[in-house]
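Support request from a user on the community tier.

User writes: "When I paste my structure tokens into the form, the page sometimes reloads and wipes my input. The last time it worked, I copied everything first. Here is what I submitted, just in case something in the input itself triggers the reload:"
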């Protein structure tokens, strides 16, 4: 595993300029387009929601297995004072782990909005999950990896799969669920610690899978299209719940009360949906916040305070035009925002990490 030296702010600026101008060698990072693994589409569909209920919790524990000789990178501590970050609002109680899929890196922010470390990762990263022992699971286009939250070092990694959109460690601490788009459908693969497929679940009639969550009892909640929807299937692949979304869904999570939170792409909202698929609360939205640069909501996380932080993805040539992260209270007040266009290019997902 290759370790990088600390990255000063000037080097971060050079990296961003190079990503936009294609300087450097042919193996360097390039910006995501609408047709690559990081791109999204601007289409939106509407329709009537179906009514069914489902389980209420997300199984999300795991333990590391094996090690990796990956040549893609690792943790780089940075000086949190050497940034050009713009932070609006009081400091958070949590740290934030985020994926920048324009520069293909992980960034851990301290509660004040400064970088703790930065780690380069393979392309196509989308999903994040806290694991025991101060680790996180990260999906990437070829599989998944584990990263140390203390220093950003990459440990276990599998990289021999294709078009992976989501990764979740199951309760046994070894098995990882990988989700991929496969032709006219979606395939979930259950893999062991070596990445070998032990079982698969194919869902036909849907495409554009993004993130999935494994619920108590083994059901899988995920976003897909078309039309854009959040849907839940049981271990046999049967649909037990779904709700149509006003834009391209990215992440849906089941709440303890049985409702579901979901992002909506260019509709720029986080919706709370009841068991009948009806909207009972809305966070964000261009109509409510017309002047702060909201463009596309992808991932989100719920803080220990109960507020929600959404990733405002700035792809589609929107780099530098708005905040990367925005925090909303349950009554849709803007509590905090963060942007640093030297440090990050386009943040696609974010995960709250309890502060030490």
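"...and here is what came back when it finally went through:"
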């Amino acid at each position: 595993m290759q370790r990088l030296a600390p990255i000063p702010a000037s080097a971060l600026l050079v990296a961003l300029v190079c990503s936009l101008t294609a300087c450097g060698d042919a193996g360097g990072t390039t910006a995501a387009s609408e047709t690559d693994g990081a791109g999204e589409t601007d289409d939106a569909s509407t329709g009537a929601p179906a009514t069914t209920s489902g389980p209420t919790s997300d199984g999300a524990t795991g333990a590391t297995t094996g090690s990796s000789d990956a040549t893609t990178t690792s943790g780089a501590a940075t000086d949190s004072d050497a940034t050009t970050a713009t932070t609006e609002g009081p400091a958070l109680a949590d740290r934030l782990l985020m994926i920048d899929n324009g520069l293909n890196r992980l960034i851990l922010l301290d509660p004040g909005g400064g970088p703790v470390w930065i780690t380069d990762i393979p392309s196509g990263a989308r999903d994040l999950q806290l694991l025991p022992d101060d680790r996180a699971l990260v999906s990437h286009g070829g599989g998944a990896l584990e990263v140390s939250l203390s220093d950003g070092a990459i440990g276990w990694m599998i990289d021999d799969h294709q078009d992976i959109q989501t990764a979740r460690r199951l309760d046994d601490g070894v098995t990882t669920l990988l989700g991929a788009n496969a032709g006219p459908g979606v395939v979930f693969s259950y893999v062991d610690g070596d990445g070998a497929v032990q079982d698969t679940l194919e869902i036909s009639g849907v495409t554009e899978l993004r993130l999935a969550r494994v619920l108590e009892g083994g059901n899988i909640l995920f976003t897909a299209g078309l039309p854009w929807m959040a849907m839940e299937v049981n271990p046999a692949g049967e649909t037990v719940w779904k709700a149509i979304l006003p834009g391209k869904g990215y992440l849906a999570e089941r709440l303890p009360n049985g409702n579901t939170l979901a992002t909506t792409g260019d509709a720029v909202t986080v919706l709370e949906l009841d068991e009948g698929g009806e909207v009972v609360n809305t966070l964000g939205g261009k109509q409510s916040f017309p002047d702060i640069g909201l463009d596309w909501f992808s991932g989100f996380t719920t803080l220990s305070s109960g507020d929600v932080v959404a990733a405002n993805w700035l792809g589609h040539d929107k780099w530098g035009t708005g905040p990367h992260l925005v925090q909303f209270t349950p009554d849709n007040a803007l509590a905090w925002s963060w942007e640093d266009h030297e440090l990050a290019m386009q943040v696609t997902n974010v995960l709250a990490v309890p502060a030490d």
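Agent notes: The reload is a front-end session timeout and is unrelated to the input. Confidence is low (pLDDT under 50) at residues 1-82. The CA atoms of residues 1 and 24 lie 23 Å apart. Escalated to web team.
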